[in-house]
């Protein structure tokens, strides 16, 4: 005689069956015959995956040197004319030498002749030296050190106590540079101090600063900060008009090279 389940009994049986099925599926998910253990690593990445995956390089993004991810933040220094480099050979010290980059950008290597150096960073320069000596040494090993280079500088001329060229060792403003150069003379027109800044080999940017009003009103936020190579000129007479950009040849009408 068949017994008909009541509504409550039917719900209880269905709930029990659902729990049994859920437990079975969970057990099957934990077991992976290919892994040979009881833990699934299909969702793991990096060194802990165990499936041949490697951790991403946090220092680079898509092969690029991203500064935010620890990549290269600043470009490497590149050799210029008058820089002095020291070259040392690991197994051939007789080839050790100290070289100065010539005005044309070349260096004269001992026995190996002339080699282009200007524009190369130290790693590129070392590789070039090793290549130059491959005909003289078997697998040359070279170490390169930068011994001397042109320091950042600025120039102050005109009506100041000590016109000249000064090293730019820290953040310096126009008014500070004038004070470092001995301050203004009694003939200085300190309301029209001119700042020259090179844009490229042919173009110079100019800016006229009113140091008198700036210091009187204590508006030092208008005091321009210097970049390497900047030139400051304090005139004796009023400069009524000056173009925003001038050519290098036109600078002679504002300052005399003999002052430097």
Gist of the model:
The chain is an alpha+beta fold. The chain has helices spanning 7-30, 122-132, 174-180, 211-216; strands at 84-89, 97-100, 106-109, 113-116, 142-148, 153-158, 164-167, 193-198, 203-209, 231-234, 245-247.
Structure write-up:
It contains four helices and eleven strands. Among the domains are: about 85-150, wza like domain (wza like fold), CATH 3.30.1950.10; about 155-260, Outer membrane lipoprotein wza domain like (Outer membrane lipoprotein wza fold like). Strands 7-6-10-8-9-11 form a six-stranded mixed sheet, with helices on one face. The chain has a three-stranded antiparallel sheet with strand order 2-1-5, covered by helices on one side. A two-stranded antiparallel ribbon has the order 3-4. The relative contact order is 0.09. It has about 260 residues and is α+β, with helices and mostly antiparallel strands.
What labels describe this entry?
alpha+beta; Outer membrane lipoprotein wza fold like
Structural topology:
Layout: H1 7-30, E1 84-89, E2 97-100, E3 106-109, E4 113-116, H2 122-132, E5 142-148, E6 153-158, E7 164-167, H3 174-180, E8 193-198, E9 203-209, H4 211-216, E10 231-234, E11 245-247
